C-alpha cells in the first residue's frame, strides 16, 4: 500500500502542496545540513522501525518458515514438509469456506455501513441546533469495547430472558427465537453488531466530507432550479467520493481483522457455519497447537490481504479521480 | 453557516432527520440495557417480563470490584491489569512515534515518503497472523502472562496511527521557523523542545487517547498470551457467562466499568477522533 485512496499522501485538502514546497526548498539547503539531515532522522526512526519490524516482518518470516514444517507446539519444530501444509489449506473445504465467509462478511458489512453511513451523514451534516448532540450520540456505539458489545448483544437476544424477545412478544412476534442456533440469524446478529458499532465511523467521515463541500456550486445548482435530491446526487455526492473511498478502504481493512464478536457471540457455530478464517487460525494455532498448519493458513490469509487491499486502493483511487474532477 | 435556499426543510429532509434520530436512539439501546441491568438487585435482572420498576442498587458493582463475583482473577485485578497495559503501551507508542514523526516531517530526509507509506501499510497486518509467532517467541523466552508481551504488540498496532497524526501536525509547522532558529544558532534539540513540542502537544493528546482506547479494548492478544497474572478485563469479563447461565448483574456491571472510561475519553476527543482514525486524511 502506498497511500490512502485518492492517490494522495496527505489530506484531500491542501496538505500536498506543503510537502512539495518542502522538497523544493531542501535542494537549497546547505551541504552540511543535508549530510546531517540523513543520519539523525534515521537514528530517530530506529525505535519505531524496531517495534514495527518485530511485529510485521519477523512474524511473516517466522510463519513462512514454520509453514514449511510439520511443527506442533509439543512435538517441536517437526520435519520439513515442503508445500504440504499449503496443499492442505487449498484442498480443505473447511479452510476454503473460512476464507469465503470472511470475504462475504467484509463485503456485506462494509456495504451496509457505507449505505447507512451516507444516509446518516446527510442529516448529521445539516447545521441545526441539535446536530452537535446528534454527533455525540452517534459516537457512543463506536466507543464500546467490542467484547462488551458482543456480550451485551448475546444477552439482549437471549431467547428466554433477552429484551429483544420481550419487545418482539409485546408486538405479537415470536418471543423465544434462538438467534444463535440458526445459521442465518447468527449471521444477522454478527453483521448487525458490526453495523451498529461501525456505521457511526463511516457517517462521521462522510459528514466531514459533506461539510467540506463549497457553497458556490450548491447555490448555483439551486438557482438553476435543481431539486434537493439532484443537488445531492450530482453536486455533493461526486465531491465526497474521496471521503467515501477512505471510509470503505479503512473499514475493509478493519473488517478483515474482525475476531472478537465472532469468538464471543458464536465461536464459529452453529456447527461451523460462522467459522471465519480468523477463528480457524486461532483454533488451529492456539487450541490444537498445530503451528505448521496454522502458519500456512496465516500466510495464505496475508497474501490474500496484500493482494486485495492494494487492488481496492487502486480501484477506489481511479473511481474517485474520474468522478471527482 | 447561513441558511441558504437549499437548507429549507422539505419532506425528504425531515424524514431523513427523523430516521437519524430513530437510528441514534436505537444505537443507545444496548448501553441502556447494560446500565439499567447493572443497577438491578439480584432477582430483578434476568426476568421476563422485564422489570422496569426496581430499587436501584450498587451491589453488583461492589460485588464485582471486591473480586467476589466469580471470575478466576478478581475483576478489580483485571481492571488494574488493563490499566497497566494501556498506560505502558500508550507511553511506549508516543515515545517511539514522536521522534519518528519528527524525522518523517523533515523535508531534508530523503526516505520520508517511502517510510511513511510503509508505516501506514503495516496497519493492514492482521493481529491474528502476528499472534502465532509472538505466542511461540514469548513462550520460549518465558514472557507469557506478563505485561510486556501485551505492551509491545499494542504499541506496534497503534504506531501507524500515532506516527501519522503526529507527522501531519509537525508538517504544518512552517519549516522556515525551524530553519530560522537553527540559523540563529539553536541546536536541533532546542528546536524540538522550544518550537515543535509546544505546537505538537494537542496531537500527542489525540494520539495518546486513541492508542489508550485501542489497547484497553484489545482482546485477541490478551486471550492468547495471558493466563492469570496479566489477564485484562475484556478477556476476564467473559467468565461471567457460562454453561449454567449468565450472571447478568456482574456481567453488566463489569461491562459498564470497562466501557465508562473509554466512553469518556472518546467523547472528550470527539472532534479529533475521526481525523485520527483516518490517519489525518479527514479533517
UniProtKB/TrEMBL annotation, chain B:
It is found in: Cell membrane. GO terms for biological process: transmembrane transport. GO terms for cellular component: plasma membrane. Residues 79-269 form the ABC transmembrane type-1 domain. Keywords: Cell membrane, Membrane, Transmembrane, Transmembrane helix, Transport. The chain crosses the membrane at residues 21-39, 83-105, 117-141, 147-166, 195-216, 248-269. It is a multi-pass membrane protein. The keyword Transmembrane helix applies. The keyword Membrane applies. Belongs to the binding-protein-dependent transport system permease family. This is Carbohydrate ABC transporter permease. It comes from Cellulomonas fimi.
Amino acid at each position: 500500500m502506498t497511500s490512502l485512496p485518492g492517490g494522495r499522501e496527505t489530506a484531500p485538502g491542501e496538505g500536498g502542496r506543503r510537502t512539495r514546497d518542502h522538497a523544493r526548498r531542501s535542494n537549497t539547503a546547505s551541504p552540511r545540513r543535508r549530510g546531517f539531515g540523513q543520519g539523525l532522522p534515521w537514528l530517530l526512526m530506529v525505535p519505531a522501525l524496531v517495534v514495527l519490524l518485530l511485529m510485521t516482518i519477523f512474524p511473516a518470516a517466522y510463519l513462512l518458515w514454520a509453514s514449511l514444517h510439520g511443527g506442533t507446539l509439543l512435538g517441536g519444530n517437526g520435519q520439513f514438509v515442503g508445500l504440504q501444509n499449503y496443499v492442505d489449506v487449498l484442498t480443505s473445504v473447511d479452510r476454503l469456506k473460512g476464507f469465503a465467509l470472511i470475504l462475504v462478511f467484509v463485503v456485506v458489512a462494509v456495504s451496509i455501513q457505507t449505505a447507512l453511513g451516507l444516509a446518516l451523514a446527510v442529516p448529521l451534516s445539516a447545521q441545526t441546533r441539535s446536530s452537535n448532540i446528534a454527533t455525540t450520540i452517534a459516537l457512543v456505539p463506536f466507543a464500546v469495547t467490542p467484547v462488551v458489545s458482543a456480550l451485551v448483544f448475546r444477552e439482549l437476544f437471549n431467547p428466554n430472558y433477552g429484551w429483544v424477545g420481550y419487545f418482539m412478544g409485546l408486538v405479537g412476534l415470536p418471543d423465544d427465537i434462538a438467534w444463535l442456533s440458526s445459521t442465518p440469524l447468527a449471521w444477522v446478529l454478527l453483521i448487525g453488531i458490526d453495523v451498529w458499532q461501525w456505521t457511526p465511523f463511516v457517517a462521521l467521515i462522510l459528514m466531514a466530507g459533506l461539510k467540506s463541500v463549497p457553497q458556490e456550486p450548491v447555490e448555483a445548482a439551486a438557482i438553476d432550479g435543481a431539486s434537493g435530491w439532484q443537488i445531492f446526487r450530482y453536486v455533493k455526492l461526486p465531491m465526497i467520493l474521496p471521503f467515501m473511498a477512505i471510509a470503505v478502504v479503512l473499514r475493509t481493512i478493519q473488517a478483515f481483522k474482525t475476531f472478537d464478536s465472532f469468538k464471543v457471540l458464536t465461536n464459529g457455530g452453529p456447527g461451523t457455519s460462522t467459522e471465519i478464517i480468523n477463528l480457524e487460525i486461532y483454533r488451529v494455532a492456539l487450541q490444537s497447537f498445530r503451528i505448521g498448519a496454522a502458519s500456512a493458513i496465516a500466510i495464505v490469509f496475508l497474501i490474500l490481504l496484500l493482494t486485495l487491499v492494494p487492488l481496492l486502493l487502486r480501484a477506489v483511487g481511479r473511481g474517485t479521480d474520474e468522478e471527482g474532477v | 453557516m447561513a441558511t441558504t435556499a437549499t437548507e429549507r426543510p422539505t419532506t425528504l429532509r425531515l424524514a431523513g432527520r427523523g430516521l437519524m434520530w430513530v437510528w441514534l436512539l436505537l444505537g443507545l439501546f444496548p448501553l441502556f440495557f447494560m446500565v439499567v441491568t447493572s443497577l438491578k438487585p439480584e432477582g430483578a435482572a434476568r426476568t421476563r417480563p422485564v422489570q422496569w420498576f426496581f430499587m436501584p442498587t450498587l451491589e453488583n458493582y461492589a460485588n464485582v470490584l471486591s473480586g467476589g463475583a466469580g471470575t478466576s482473577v478478581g475483576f478489580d485485578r483485571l481492571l488494574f491489569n488493563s490499566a497497566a497495559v494501556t498506560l505502558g503501551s500508550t507511553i511506549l507508542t508516543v515515545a517511539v512515534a514522536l521522534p519518528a514523526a519528527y524525522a518523517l516531517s523533515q523535508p531534508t530526509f530523503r526516505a520520508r515518503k517511502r517510510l511513511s507509506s510503509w508505516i501506514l501499510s503495516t496497519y493492514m497486518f492482521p493481529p491474528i497472523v502476528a499472534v502465532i509467532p509472538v505466542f511461540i517467541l514469548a513462550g520460549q523466552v518465558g514472557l507469557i502472562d506478563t505485561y510486556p508481551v501485551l505492551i509491545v504488540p499494542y504499541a506496534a498496532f497503534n504506531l501507524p496511527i500515532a506516527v501519522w497524526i503526529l507527522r501531519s501536525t509537525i508538517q504544518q509547522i512552517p519549516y522556515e521557523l525551524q530553519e530560522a532558529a537553527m540559523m540563529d544558532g539553536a541546536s536541533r534539540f532546542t528546536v524540538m523542545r522550544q518550537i515543535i513540542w509546544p505546537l505538537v502537544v494537542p496531537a500527542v493528546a489525540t494520539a495518546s487517547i486513541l492508542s489508550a482506547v485501542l489497547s484497553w479494548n484489545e482482546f485477541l492478544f490478551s486471550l492468547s498470551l495471558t493466563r492469570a497474572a496479566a489477564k485484562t478485563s475484556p478477556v476476564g469479563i467473559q467468565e461471567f457467562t457460562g454453561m449454567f447461565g449468565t450472571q447478568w448483574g456482574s456481567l453488566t456491571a463489569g461491562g459498564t466499568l470497562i466501557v465508562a472510561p473509554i466512553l469518556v475519553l472518546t467523547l472528550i476527543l470527539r472532534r479529533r477522533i475521526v481525523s485520527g482514525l483516518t490517519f489525518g486524511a479527514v479533517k
